[in-house]
Design brief:
single chain, about 325 residues, mainly beta, 3 helices
């Protein structure tokens, strides 16, 4: 082992969060080392060429304080570039699918006034603001592939600014910010994500208080389908496999102290448990080659106790 790699492994092993997570696991997941950043590392989002991850760094702890969207090599190491402002703003990317094939990343940020959607070239260049909607907040954007009509869209989660923790709707717009269209209303719908073929959008819907199911709709907001159909569980953070045949998501419920990851056919069926962790696993993203799934993890409930780190696990055989 090279000295630099040995030092990186030693630093990683010395981290109390990572060390505790390793003893808490009963699966083959491995940590992704990210050096030089304190706080909570969240929302890993693999690049289409497989060389990099976008992720969010909350500087204080899980979901608290200022946040910056970074890129890092897919294997880990030193962050490559800050894609969002490094000020006191809270900038957050969607886990799973936030890149375009052209190498642009979408994220939300309150750097100016309220949370709006931005797009930025991952390699170099300035971010461009795409939304300006007084009275509303825009979060969790996902960019579509180029569709059959040659258009490209961004779907996102929208809240009323006066009630940011209240019910959310799904909206979409063209990649230049034009053509704003509402897709859902009358429910609480969050974390939308385009399928690799652009024919479906996966998201989580609150069925009743603290219980969520993974749903899909078509790009026009129709053909609603409940994928997980598990009223006794809370199923969130869906992310597509490269083939579009499978979804990975974070699921909790009876027998689990904290959410773990599950894989399910996109057309519904029996879920397969992917991670075995006494702590929390969430915000998964499938690699473009289908071989692995990245996610955030902690050996506890991070909402009450601290921060998460980034991890990777092999995708189940035959599920890509």
């Amino acid at each position: 082992m090279k000295r630099s790699a040995w030092l990186l492994a030693a630093v990683l092993a010395a981290s109390p969060v990572v060390a505790a997570a390793q003893t808490c696991r009963g699966d083959t997941a491995k940590p992704i080392p990210v050096t030089g950043l304190a706080g909570s590392l969240q929302n890993p989002c693999p690049s289409p060429d497989g060389t990099a991850l976008a992720f969010t760094n909350f500087k204080r702890r899980y979901n608290l304080g200022g946040a910056v969207v970074w890129t890092v090599p897919a294997a880990g190491g030193a962050p490559t570039r800050a894609l969002s402002p490094r000020s006191g703003a809270q900038s957050v990317n969607l886990p799973g699918q936030c890149w375009s094939a052209a190498g642009n990343v979408v994220y939300s940020s309150d750097v100016v006034d309220r949370d709006e959607i931005y797009i930025v070239p991952a390699a170099a260049g300035a971010a461009k603001r795409l939304t300006d909607r007084p009275g509303f907040l825009a979060w969790e954007p996902s960019i579509s592939p180029v569709l059959a009509d040659r258009s490209q869209w961004i779907v996102f989660e929208s809240h009323r600014e006066a009630d940011p923790e209240g019910p959310a709707e799904l909206w979409k717009m063209r990649v230049d910010g034009s053509g704003l269209v509402r897709l859902t209303q009358g429910a609480d719908d969050r974390q939308p994500q385009w399928s690799p073929r652009g024919d479906r959008i996966a998201f989580q819907r609150q069925i009743k208080p603290d219980q969520w199911d993974v749903m899909t709709i078509d790009p026009a907001g129709g053909s609603l389908f409940n994928v997980t159909r598990a009223p006794a569980r809370s199923n969130t953070d869906p992310s597509w496999s490269p083939s579009g045949a499978w979804l990975v998501y974070s699921g909790g419920g009876p027998g689990l102290d904290n959410a773990n990851l599950f894989v399910i056919p996109a057309l519904g069926g029996t879920p397969v448990r992917l991670t075995v962790n006494c702590g929390y696993d969430g915000a998964p993203g499938w690699s473009a080659d289908g071989r692995s799934i990245v996610f955030e993890s902690a050996p506890y409930d991070p909402d009450s106790r601290g921060s998460t780190t980034l991890w990777r696990i092999a995708a189940p055989a035959g599920m890509r």
